[in-house]
Amino acid sequence: MNMITKRASGALAAGAVAALIGLTGAPSAHAAAGPNVVARPFSSSHCGAKWCVSVVGSGLHVDYETVSEINNGAMVGYVTAQDDDDSWHKASAWVAASSGSEKLTVNRSFSNNSSFCGGISSSSSWTDYKDMVCFTIHS
Question: Model's pTM, two decimal places?
Answer without folding.
Answer: 0.71
